[in-house]
Amino acid sequence: MWLQVAVQADEAHAETLSEALMDAGALSVSIDDADAGTPDEVPQFGEPGHPAQPLWQHSRVVALFDRDVELAVALAEAAAQAGLDAVPPFTVEEVAEQDWVRLTQSQFDPIEIDPRLWIVPSWHVAPNPDAINIEMDPGLAFGTGSHPTTRLCLQWVLDNIPAGCSVLDYGCGSGILAIAAAKVGAGKVVGIDIDERALESTRDNAERNGVSIEVVHSGTPVTARYDRVIANILTNPLCVLAPAIAACVADGGKLVLSGVLEPQAEQVIAAYAPYIALKVGATHEGWVRLEGQR
Ligand SMILES: C[S@@+](CC[C@H](N)C(=O)[O-])C[C@H]1O[C@@H](n2cnc3c(N)ncnc32)[C@H](O)[C@@H]1O
């Protein structure tokens, strides 16, 4: 049994609240229309055949927690992190494991990142067997390909990984970017994360995709230099980590960053300016991809 918590949110706060709920210990989070029926009747925004942004005014952030969670504490933490004065109205429901798995599966279809690259859940047949297909199920770590920042980084990976080059995925989450790099033809690929669950997820996903990825906890100092460094984290950690991340890029190597909202781009560019000149390479749904070369 798990606890499914549906929290009301306006459009402006739905995404930050969803991230805050993950940080507060949710195992999985989705956003749907509070005015619609059951979650499986709700459109999946940002995925093929669906609108790029939710069209509804009243969102509902649906989070799954382990039943032993201290829910009041988790919700209070999440509300504070999302900049809300109080915990918004919410409902709690107990759900059986099988029901949640069925519901989650029904919400994830294959995602086309590019005609050359698809993210395919294990319970689906690859729509294009000739493309690079990454098998990836929603799990505990961020990175199923549906988020704009992951998409921006995957599109960059497709055209910027020469055969045999070394790649560092800083903040690897599910390992999706590292796996894509390996499938595109990288040689040595390393994934770093601060979260043990992410490292485990990267290990598992690499194995199921038949690629070799070395995983390293971010507490371990990085001494090697990489031809390509990708970091899809968030503005604040990216700025704090600027000297460390920039130092991982080999001479002539390329750095790409995402997890940065358009108004934050200049802040991140300034943080990296002493090391590498970055510029906005692409934007998608309000998020930017920053690119530079040492
Ligand atoms: C937005 S997710 C990106 C996951 C995946 N790379 C993707 O693009 O979908 C950010 C990841 O960075 C990790 N992270 C956050 N702060 C970090 C830090 N200081 N050092 C290393 N990893 C960090 C998080 O645990 C999370 O897995």
Automatic annotation (TrEMBL):
Entry's Gene Ontology molecular function annotations: methyltransferase activity
UniProt cross-references to InterPro entries, sorted A to Z: Ribosomal_L11_MeTrfase_PrmA, Ribosomal_PrmA_MeTrfase, SAM-dependent_MTases_sf
UniProtKB keywords: Cytoplasm, Methyltransferase, Ribonucleoprotein, Ribosomal protein, S-adenosyl-L-methionine, Transferase
Entry EC no(s): 2.1.1.-
Homology family: Belongs to the methyltransferase superfamily. PrmA family.
Function text: Methylates ribosomal protein L11.
PANTHER family in alphabetical order: ELECTRON TRANSFER FLAVOPROTEIN BETA SUBUNIT LYSINE METHYLTRANSFERASE (PTHR43648:SF1)
Name the UniProt record assigns to this protein: Ribosomal protein L11 methyltransferase
Originating species: Niveibacterium microcysteis
